[in-house]
Design goal:
Chain C: It is found in: Cell inner membrane. The complex is a heterotrimer of chains A (208), B (316) and C (428). By secondary structure, chain A is mainly alpha-helical. Chain A has five helices and no strands. The two termini of chain A are 12 Å apart. Chain B is 50% helix and 19% strand. Chain B has a single domain, classed as D-Maltodextrin-Binding Protein, domain 2 (3-Layer(aba) Sandwich). Chain B has 316 residues and is α/β, with parallel strands linked by helices. Classes of the chains: A mainly alpha (208), B alpha/beta (316), C mainly alpha (428). Chains in contact: A-B, A-C, B-C. The interface between A and C is large, with 70 and 83 residues. Bound molecules: sodium ion (NA) (2 copies).
């Protein structure tokens, strides 16, 4: 939710990236589906945080290994690559949930509210289609990769293991955009994402 | 038709020279056009390999060492002192080797690739900050190697501390002292400016960087016979050309380096100095067989046999 | 094909689609028309993933993480208090300090994105508090980050050096002159801006206050010590220095200052991951799109038609500058270098241009490109980190881009700006 004061307009706030909008995840779905959705959101959040912390630990451990133990961690680079894929693809659906994907909205901003609402339906629908298409092709890519049996040189694990979050991330992102389109169709307000209402008119809420 | 050909080096480096000759031959003798894609323009080595397997690229040059993730046996080229140290024998070896000309094509075919040829790119030398005359001189030296288990094993056996580092960070790391050494063939030491940030080049004859050119197999098998012959003869012409180009290239590169940096020390180790390095080969061979099993052992044995024959042919 | 793709992308962009969509659809259309259908889309996925593979990208989340911990806690505030005690009374002093901090940070990092985060995160709130306008602040940060690309080490120069066979050591030295010139010009502009907009000054601090401010910043001064000492002392690579900063920031804020509890660390890590994902999905989509451009040999086609071989050296340098500037508006800078440098190599050689000069000009253009709309990693990073709308992030950039392009032109007519130091060091 973007009703928190923006870091820029409130000059006394010194946090670079306030995160209050992502602290409480809520689901747009009712009942059991909502519970599942919430669990997925929780999982994405944990993976994001764990990915970043592991990356820092892994990189530092490599330095310590090199200097104190006289031997580098050979899988360090491979592990970081796995983590960056995890962070990116777990993160895109989490970002979609919170309406954080970067957009440039020159024409959009000039439209009247009703136009913006239907524009948002179109944007969310097209974005969802792209995400599902990419999910499908990345699933195919993983299957091909698994068929070739390529291994990571140091970890000696199949390369396709490192990619499983790619189709999953695209699928979950696609679902978020479908829900966003749906919300904009059935409700009168404009939703940037399932969780984020477009706070138009108040400059400090016009998030990205 | 337009055929696309990707390789792992810049246009004016060895693989690029080979590709240019190949293109020239094809275009002179047919209506086909060959588009060349140097290093990085279509992704990394593993990417272009996959694109060749998918049939997007008709031709790809990938060094067997990098193919290791796909064809483990190809890592045999990282076993030290397996390839001849003498240039004439080396060329004879590549022309006549049963392992290279008969066994490897089958392994590549399993991955949907038609192996057209393998060729050497030049002797791999070390560039370090301090002179190296024996494994003892490598003690405590943090030596950058590619993340390949056999290379790591080799440099551990040589007495160094193998240190993996992404290629983009090697120049800077040598400059600031995170690492004190790295290895590459002569022309690459020159073109990547590694000599600017190291003081000594040492050649111990442990390896000659080998690369392989292949075609997408489905594409190749689907060609009319005249086109297959065209590709074969273009490959042969480029192979002869690159062996000629190779003759003296190593000396030339080292000479250019000496001119660019007169204080550079270039040491070619004597037979006697090489001995302790050569003794470590057994250990790496064992690691190779552990990794690749029976099939790997068969390739290794055949290569040794081929080497024997090549040195007999050139000495007799 | 190229015209269709670019038109579609611009329209989608203006309509307000998430920025990954124009890139993804651009790549979709490209793959579809190149291969006559959807048969090769798996390669598009391959390139998406390949785009976020370079090891140097790891530095970005690490610096975001460290900077976020520092700004949430006390480290950043104490460091800036110290700077302010020295420059607070000078009109525009804080803006000049920001540009200078980008330059210094550039001396250890080859990444403009990392510079945006590491310098921008702590300094932006303070500049806003001091009365600067946000659009000026954002533009100052993303454009000053360009300097990091010119000041060694620079990944752009390393790649140019390898592709063109030019001495990397000479390139590094040649980048210093233009880098410092940009710093001076940005500083002058900042002071003029501050005067024009009446940005208030603080009363001049006494030496006693300055001493206290320095003492208060003793712990946080460990950050520059770790980064500069660690890298030039041969202990870390730049990426590892970023991770070491994370560790040091955690030690300071969790143990020494006790500003952050474990829950706070978790929230910060999550927020870092979110920002990273938002930026990296664009890097990934950009890589897939770049692949299409490269595979279809679009630059070769365009450049083949303009008769560059008849131009003199000045003309060639202008064409090179324009080509790299336009290329970097749409495609990842590193890919632009890899594709365009070999295309220009013959004409550079035949006109007898100094490859070090050409490399410096290219590096400058590439740096400008990463802060130029529509597609620029520095812009994306600023949008994600500072949570401001895209339009607002780029609103203040025109004066800076004019200055940068001015330097680019000056470099063409007065190559000594770059070559003076190089000649001093190598030709003496
Ligand atoms: Na730099
Ligand atoms: Na740009």
């Amino acid at each position: 939710m973007s009703n928190d004061l923006d870091a820029a307009s409130d000059a006394t706030q010194t946090t670079a990236t306030d995160h209050s909008d992502t602290r409480d995840d809520i689901s747009a779905l009712p009942g059991v589906l909502g519970t599942i959705d919430l669990a997925v959101a929780r999982l994405e959040a944990v993976l994001l945080a764990a990915g970043v912390l592991l990356m820092a630990a892994n990189t530092i451990a490599n330095v310590i290994g090199r200097y104190l133990l006289g031997s580098s961690i050979f899988f360090s680079e491979e592990l970081n690559r796995i983590l960056i894929i995890l962070i990116t693809f777990a993160g895109i659906s989490y970002a979609a949930r919170h309406g954080r994907h970067i957009r440039m909205s020159a024409i959009y901003d000039a439209l009247p509210p009703k136009g913006r609402r239907w524009m948002m339906v179109l944007i969310a629908a097209v974005t969802a289609i792209c995400m599902f298409a990419l999910a499908w092709y990345s699933f195919g890519f993983i299957k091909t990769s698994a068929g070739q049996g390529r291994l990571l040189p140091s970890l000696q694990v199949p390369v396709w293991w490192t990619l499983v979050w790619v189709p999953l991330g695209f699928t979950l992102t696609g679902i978020q955009y479908v829900l966003t389109a749906y919300k904009n169709v059935v409700e009168d307000d404009i939703y940037l994402s399932t969780n984020v209402l477009e706070g138009y008119g108040r400059d400090d809420e016009r998030e990205v | 038709d337009t055929w696309r050909y990707a390789f792992e080096e810049a246009l004016e480096e060895v693989q690029g020279k080979f590709a240019q000759k190949f293109k020239e031959e094809i275009e002179a003798n047919s209506d086909h056009e060959v588009q060349l894609f140097p290093f990085g323009t279509l992704g990394e080595s593993a990417d272009t390999m996959e694109q060749a397997q998918a049939g997007i690229l008709q031709f790809v040059d990938q060094s067997p060492g990098f193919t290791g993730a796909l064809i483990p046996e190809a890592q045999v080229f990282f076993v030290p002192y397996l390839l001849p140290q003498d240039e004439e024998t080396l060329q004879e070896f590549f022309r006549t080797s049963t392992a290279i000309n008969e066994m490897f094509p089958e392994l590549y075919a399993e991955q949907g690739l038609e192996l057209l040829t393998m060729f050497p790119e030049g002797e791999v030398c070390m560039s370090t900050q301090e002179p190296v005359h024996s494994p003892a001189d490598l003690n405590e030296v943090k030596f950058r190697v590619m993340t390949n288990p056999l290379l790591v094993e080799s440099y551990q056996a040589f007495g160094a501390t193998p240190t993996p580092l992404p290629w983009g960070e090697v120049y800077g790391a040598l400059q600031t002292g995170i690492i004190q050494g790295q290895e590459n063939p002569g022309f690459f030491l020159e073109s990547t400016k590694m000599y600017e940030v190291t003081d000594v080049i040492t050649c111990i004859g442990h390896n000659n960087f080998t690369t392989a050119v292949m075609a997408n197999k489905q594409f190749y098998d689907g060609l009319p016979e005249e086109d297959q012959l065209l590709i074969q003869s273009a490959t042969d012409a480029a192979f002869d050309y690159i062996l000629d180009y190779q003759a003296g290239l190593q000396e030339e590169s080292l000479q250019n380096i000496r001119e660019a940096k007169p204080e550079m020390q270039v040491n070619i180790l004597s037979e006697e100095e090489r001995k302790p390095f050569m003794d470590t080969a057994v250990q790496v061979e064992e690691a190779f067989i552990d990794m690749t099993g029976e099939r790997g052992k068969a390739i290794l044995d055949q290569m040794k046999e081929d080497l024997e024959q090549a040195s007999q042919a050139t000495s007799g | 094909m190229a015209t269709t793709i670019f038109s579609i992308m611009i329209v989608l962009l203006l309509l307000g689609f998430p920025m990954m969509i124009p890139l993804i659809i651009g790549a979709f259309v490209g793959f579809y028309s190149l291969f006559g259908g959807f048969g090769q889309m798996e390669t598009m996925v391959q390139q998406l993933v390949a785009g976020i593979r370079p090891a140097s990208l790891i530095a970005v989340p690490m610096f975001i993480f460290a900077a976020d911990i520092m700004t949430r806690g006390q480290s950043a505030g104490r460091l800036i208090d110290m700077v302010m005690s020295f420059v607070g009374h000078v009109r525009g002093g804080l803006a000049v300090s920001t540009a200078a901090a980008c330059t210094m940070f550039g001396a250890v990092s080859g990444s403009t994105q990392a510079t945006v985060v590491a310098v921008g995160s702590p300094l932006r709130p303070r500049m806003l508090k001091a009365g600067y306008n946000d659009s000026f602040v954002l533009a100052l940060i993303i454009n000053s980050a360009d300097i990091a690309f010119l000041i060694p080490p620079s990944i752009g120069m390393i790649i140019y050096g390898v592709v063109s066979g030019t001495s990397i050591a000479e390139l590094f030295i040649a980048g210093i002159g233009p880098g410092l010139l940009i710093l001076v010009l940005f500083s002058i502009y900042s002071m003029i801006y501050a005067r024009r907009n009446n940005v208030p000054t603080e009363p001049k601090a006494s030496w006693g206050d300055r001493g206290r401010a320095v003492r208060g910043a003793l712990w946080p001064l460990g950050f520059p010590a770790i980064i500069i000492g660690g890298i030039y002392g041969g202990i870390f690579s730049p990426t590892e220095a970023a991770a070491a900063c994370v560790l040091y920031a955690l030690i300071l804020e969790v143990i020494v200052f006790r500003e952050l509890d474990l829950k706070g660390v978790y929230e910060t890590a999550k927020s870092t991951g979110l920002i990273t994902a938002v930026v990296f999905i664009l890097v990934a989509a950009g890589a897939a799109f770049s692949w299409v451009i490269s595979f279809a040999q679009i630059p070769q086609t365009i450049l083949g038609g303009i008769g560059i071989s008849e131009m003199g050296p000045i003309g060639v340098l202008f064409v090179i500058s324009i080509a790299f500037f336009i290329g970097c508006m749409f495609v990842d800078p590193i890919v632009v270098i890899l594709i365009l440098v070999p295309i220009f190599a013959p004409v550079v050689q035949s006109t007898g241009l100094d490859p070090v000069l050409v490399g410096t000009i290219i590096t400058l253009q590439v740096a400008i490109g990463s802060a130029t709309p529509p597609f620029g990693c520095d812009i994306f990073t600023a949008v994600a980190v500072f949570k401001r709308p895209y339009i607002e992030v780029i609103r203040g950039t025109p004066p800076f881009i004019v200055i940068l392009l001015g330097v680019a032109v000056a470099l063409i007519y007065f190559p000594q700006i770059a070559l003076f130091l190089r000649d001093l060091a190598f030709k003496g």
